[in-house]
Amino acid sequence: MQQNSSSSTPSTNTILYACLLVYPPMALLALGWLYLQNNSLPSLWQHLWHKPIWNLLLGMGIGLIVVTLSQLSSNSLSWAKKMEERFCPFFANLTLKHIFLLALLSSIGEELFFRGAMQPVFGITLTSLIFGSLHILPPNEGEKLDIFSKYSWTIFAIAMGFLLGYMYEFSQNILAPISTHFWVNFLNMYFLSTKYTQNPQNHSTSQNTLKRREDNAT
Predict the structure, then answer these.
(1) Are 161 and 113 in contact (CB under 8 A)?
(2) What does the pLDDT average to over 48-62?
């Protein structure tokens, strides 16, 4: 039996519910872990108010640089273009409000957990490797990719893990990596959504890939 090609793509509500189930508990787990680390939760809270505007602006500036490099890569490098096409079905129909919420939840949850709670225990290197290993491109049946293209998002996430980790060490304020993480996620999701909304050919290419996947399954 043949199904609609969009059925294999999670709906907007499914994506939002998944984020609500993952990121708030992740943030709470991070706060609990921090409290167990010699009662370091008050220290983290105090650091939030150490030059907060400066750290938010620092994070935004670095985030804009990362996004600029990401957009340049997607226009000139094949592996970056393939990674962009993989994410198209997930973000093409998101509204600006949805994108903002996803970026906010993911940046706060992941930075509190990985940089705030895990990094002081495991160090920057191991934390960055764990962070990156959890970022894997959605599978695409029937498409053969070289190793670099297959793990491009993982490699990018590991590099971002080191960047965010050193930002946290430098600023001693979790707001800086949260701000960078937010702007990278928000702007990349926004550009991805608008790019495929305004260019139906790119969007249809991704939908055709999903269609072929379903035809193979049936």
Answers:
(1) no
(2) 89
Distance, in Å, from the CA atom of 90 to the CA atom of 58, rounded to the nearest integer, reads 29
pLDDT over threshold 60, residue 28: yes
Rounded to an integer, the average pLDDT of 148-169 is 90
The pLDDT value recorded for residue 137 is 74
- Give the other-Cβ count within 10 Å of 202's Cβ: 18
Helix segments in the chain, DSSP class H: 12-36, 41-48, 52-76, 78-91, 96-110, 119-133, 147-150, 152-171, 175-198, 200-217
pLDDT greater than 60 at residue 214: no
Cα-based angle 182, 17, 207 (whole degrees, multiple of 5): 80
With residue 4 as reference, give the H or E element that holds it. Answer: none
pTM value is 0.82
Backbone angles phi, psi at 149, to 5 degrees: -65, -40
Buried-exposed string 134-166: b where 16+ CB fall within 10 A, e elsewhere: ebebeebeeeebeeebbbbbbebbbebbbbbbe
User: Token pair for residue 78?
Assistant: 């094949």
Helix (H, G, I), strand (E, B) or coil at 94: coil
pLDDT greater than 70 at residue 109: yes
Query: What tokens does 170 get?
Result: 């430098």
Three-state secondary structure readout of 1-14 = CCCCHHHHCCCHHH
**Residue 217 to residue 213: CA distance in whole angstroms:** 6
Look at residue 142 in the predicted model and tell me its pLDDT.
60
Query: How many residues appear in the chain?
Result: 218
- Average pLDDT score over residue span 31-52: 76
